[in-house]
Amino acid sequence: MDRVFNKVRNLDAYPKINEDFYSRTLSGGVITLVASIAMFLLFCSELGLYLHTVTETKLVVDTSRGEKLHINFDITFPAVSCTLLSLDAMDISGEQHLDIRHDIIKKRIDSNGKVIEERKEGIGGPQIEKPLQRHGGRLEHNETYCGSCFGAEASDDECCNSCEEVREAYRRKGWGLTNPDLIDQCKREGFAQKIKDEEGEGCNIYGSLEVNKVAGNFHFVKSFHQSSIHIPDLLTFQEDSYNISHKINKLSFGDHYPGKKNPLDGVHWFQENPNGMYQYFLKVVPTIYTSIRGYTIQSNQFSVTEHYKSPEIGRRSLPGVFFFYDLSPIKVTFTETHISFLHFMTNVCAIVGGIFTVAGIVDSFVYHGHKALRKKMEIGKLG
Q1: Which residue in 45, 102, 234, 374 is a FRET match for 363, CA 20 to 30 A apart?
Q2: Is the pLDDT of residue 133 over 90?
């Protein structure tokens, strides 16, 4: 066994020297101090690089199908009242949603931008008398209510029990509801009075909507709808020009992820000419963000161009703010990474070993230089 230990001892690459033979110098102490400081600084730098995450970007073809596109918005219209402001969405597949109310919140604001009232989108109000039945009489006790559609019934047994249902029946017929005061349901719900009460107010509308992941558009218009044709029929209430000035407080597609920038956030546009259509053309890029812990966020980025379309003389156009979006076939993936621990340890060892070696060479050079200089001085004195 002793022979084995002796052979292993002969492999020692770090032979030890008795402390009696050590020679400590001032220059060696200074070099050791400088080397230690350099090691510490470089170690801190390497540790910072190890802890710092780096985002890798990759472009791939988007092969997803049948997904939905989530749109978040917060837009202020200082010159359009909440009752007269509606949100529509439609896409190239033919699907359309008119006067969207689900997940929509509206805030009535005054001319100074102060909030008057916040409410879920919808029309409601107290009933002023017993409802008018489809047959012409008033609703009696133990009688089922079936309101008249005022000539817009699609069948003999169709009922319109609210102002909204009457307006929907008129839309299907392609008729304009020009005087809600004559409609019993609207009178009971105070719709006409609500429009008059909100005259001169603005509206902040915010919320979200979910649409098919295909090209389409959504728009905010100050009008009612007539089937698939949109004609503003509220000029009876407000004969002034449509003012579509607006401020986009927030507009995003999908969830937020670190570093995401929405180019339309904070954009404000003030209308100079009456009426007209303000159009935004958006190119939506599907994006996947994967955090350092493996958490994945499905989202989207977008680029935008904008255009204002002035009203044509002699032709009535639909004033409003339109967002036309199209989807990019390329998907962007962001992945957070950092260097591996083994790579970090390799760099630390290289720093310590490299500085130690260089410091030893410098110390040896300085020591032998001083030693040679002293020897020459001693020879000079003897001579």
Answers
A1: 45
A2: no
